[in-house]
Specification:
The protein is mainly beta. Among the domains are: 8-54, no CATH class; 548-648, Immunoglobulin-like (Sandwich), CATH 2.60.40. The protein has ten helices and 42 strands. β34 (555-563) and β35 (566-568) form a beta hairpin. The structure holds (dicuprio-$l^{3}-sulfanyl)-sulfanyl-copper and dinuclear copper ion. Dinuclear copper ion is lined by residues 565, 595, 630, 632-634, 638, 641.
């Protein structure tokens, strides 16, 4: 390999200029760095492209990232926060499952949050977290909240980006699974959750032989109350759909605000039964050439529900399919067989559907569809009475993308980026003339992709992450279960370039959203004695000097404080059989001075960040001597931050 260093000088100069422009650091060397760099490149076997990629992503200690990515943590039930361009993982947020470090699911406050996600009284200790959705104002991310859906158990969570904590989980027994979740309307009026697998609504029983008549899909519109920062189930509603197996969803924006779009993959009404004389599920669902894009006027649905045109099923207001079909709430447009992603362009004018089993992306025109709907110009009706628009009169065109188009994101220059699963590339194409202009290979089997603010009304371009399902030869060998691979792609160069591979060993990650970091304004500490879930001063908050143990019959209340480097009280005596109500407040107000608190054998483990208050309730049913201690290396006397919990035998 012949190495020249002339190319690196301008690159270093640019980097130095950028550093000075951002007010950062001392001036970097411009001419002299080259010989040392050449030696390093030789020693590590790096090409010029490698070093360029390194310069574009390397983020020195203390420098922050320009973007933050919120990625689904798949089965872990968590959300992963990643910095871009460094690709450093910055946080895991506990959402649908207990997360020990944060004490999430261990104190009374967060146990109650998780309990919101119980189904039929059952605690669920995993999730299939899919699509994160940042809250929007005017179709742009506002940096306030994050929502995410659990496909497996049809749940939606609300995360407050003030402290990056999950505040609420909602679910409805109306449906049994979701996939089109979570997607928000442009002002976060609603968080959309759409079924994947059809079931009888409300958790009833019916044999799949009655699939056509008894099984249904639905789109739930969870009402988000911004003043409270919570979903209001009582103000939410659902729209009943035929059992066509709805897939992804997206809300209209700008011209198409008030509408939402859902695709589907099973107009065949297949339900499996490969030992009962039926075709297997996958071929049964792929017989017809066309499926239906569901075009939904949700504002109209909202009006009809407000006017009382609903049935209540499993506590949810449901706009019946017959009403939705008759009142122009639900209209179908054919879409090429078994599509997958549906994504609205930044101007809200077009709806891009990924073909999956078709080589095309189909670009529907909202204007054309709206004109046909207004003129009631239909081609026919489906067996459930839903009007169907003409395919050719509804589209603006099709773009020949390649094999297995799935999901689409956008930039600020009129380009769209579609993931091609089978071809395992990202295709860049022009929205104006529907032509592919570039492709970049990804390693391997790309699912979703995310560009900077790429599904808002004003995408940034710049960066894209390919979220790849396979990673076979990319990293050190770690046995049969491999990490997935997030590849950072540079969108600023004439040809797209892969800059970085991030193995993600927490999965299976699905979708992600990327937000400009300066839109986020997280708090640094809690107010003294704050309950992080209510945001209020906790009823049992402990003040310094007022620590105590109070007994009321067999109920023992422990009012404990934590501050470097002790717990007060550090001896707590109870009797076997007592119920213990532990009230723990951190008296710290210094940023990052976090303590943990643990008692062995009682599964007590909480985290108290500065100011935070938590309650812990348990029965002291095991007599003995239990050391309790701080689980964060908080200070030089961290090991001394300990005490004894004494349970005297009866
Ligand atoms: S989707 S399999 Cu987001 Cu492509 Cu779930
Ligand atoms: Cu507090 Cu260690």
């Amino acid at each position: 390999m012949r190495l020249s260093t002339s190319w690196i000088t301008p690159l270093l100069a640019t980097a130095a200029a950028a550093a000075v422009a951002c007010g950062g650091g001392k001036s970097a060397p411009t001419g002299a760095a080259s010989s040392g760099v050449t030696d390093l490149m030789k020693a590590r076997g790096l090409s010029e492209a490698d070093v360029t990629a390194a310069l574009k992503t390397y983020t020195p200690s203390g420098k922050h990232d320009e973007y933050l990515v919120f990625a689904s943590g798949g089965h872990s039930g968590q959300v992963i926060v990643i910095g871009v361009p460094s690709m450093r993982i910055i946080k895991y947020i506990g959402v649908f499952t207990p997360e020990p470090w944060q004490g999430y699911g261990f104190d009374d406050q967060t146990k109650a949050v998780l309990a919101g996600g119980r189904r039929s009284g059952q605690d669920l200790t995993w999730a299939d977290t899919h699509h994160p959705a940042l809250s929007e104002s005017g179709g742009d991310y506002d940096g306030k909240y994050l929502f995410i859906g659990d496909k497996a158990n049809a749940r939606v969570a609300v995360i407050d980006l003030a402290d990056f904590m999950t505040k609420q989980i909602v679910t409805t027994e109306l449906i049994g699974s979701d996939h089109g979740a979570a997607f928000v309307t442009p002002n976060t009026e609603y968080v959309i959750e759409t079924t994947q697998y059809a079931t009888p609504l409300g958790g009833k029983y019916a044999d799949p032989k009655e699939y056509k008549d008894k099984y249904r899909g639905a789109a739930v519109f969870w009402k988000f109350d911004r003043t409270k920062g919570r979903i209001d189930p009582a103000a939410s509603f659902a729209i009943e759909f035929p059992p066509y197996v709805q897939d992804l969803a997206d809300a209209g924006k700008k011209v198409s605000d008030g509408w939402a779009f859902f695709n589907s993959i099973n107009t065949e009404l297949a339900w499996g039964g490969n030992l009962e004389g039926n075709p297997p599920m996958e071929s049964g669902m792929s017989q017809n050439d066309m499926d239906y894009l569901h075009v939904v006027n949700w504002r109209k649905a909202e009006e009809l529900v407000a006017a009382g045109k609903f049935e209540t099923i499993a506590g949810m207001k449901v706009l019946p399919l017959s009403v939705a079909a008759a009142e122009g709430v639900l209209t179908f447009v054919p879409e090429p067989k078994s599509p997958h992603g549906v994504d609205i362009t930044p101007d809200g004018k077009d709806i891009v559907v990924g073909g999956k089993l078709d080589t095309h992306g189909t670009v529907y025109s909202f204007e054309k569809m709206k004109a046909l709907i207004d003129a009631k110009q239909y081609e026919g009706k489906d067996p459930y009475g839903v009007p169907i628009l003409s395919f050719k009169d509804s589209i603006r065109g099709q773009v020949e993308l390649g094999l297995g188009p799935l999901h689409t994101q956008f930039d600020d220059k009129g380009f769209a980026y579609t993931s091609l699963f089978l071809e395992t590339v990202v295709a860049k194409w022009s929205l104006a003339d529907l032509k592919v202009v570039d492709k970049v290979p990804t390693h391997y089997n790309i699912g979703h992709l995310v560009s900077a603010e790429g599904d808002t009304v004003s995408p940034d371009g710049k960066y894209l992450i390919a979220m790849n399902k396979w990673a076979l030869d990319r990293f050190n060998l770690v046995g049969p279960l491999l990490p997935q691979n997030f590849q950072l792609v540079d969108l600023t160069t004439p040809k797209m370039q892969v800059l970085y591979d991030l193995p993600l060993p927490l999965g299976e990650p699905h979708y992600a959203q990327m937000i400009k970091a300066d839109k986020l304004k997280p708090i640094e500490i809690y107010k003294p004695g704050e309950d992080p879930i209510t945001g209020e001063h906790a009823t049992h908050a402990v003040e310094g000097g007022k620590e105590r143990v109070e007994r009321q019959g067999d109920q023992v209340h422990v009012y404990m404080s934590a501050i470097r480097s002790n717990f007060k009280p550090d001896i707590v005596r109870v009797k076997e059989g007592d119920t213990v109500h532990w009230h723990l407040t951190s008296l710290e107000q210094a940023y990052d001075a976090t303590h943990g608190f643990a008692i062995n054998s009682y599964n007590v483990n909480v985290s108290v960040e500065p100011g935070k208050h938590v309650d812990i309730t348990f029965k002291a049913d095991k007599p003995g001597v239990f050391p309790m201690y701080c689980t964060e290396f908080c200070s030089a006397l961290h090991l001394e931050m300990a005490g004894y919990f004494l349970v005297e035998p009866r």
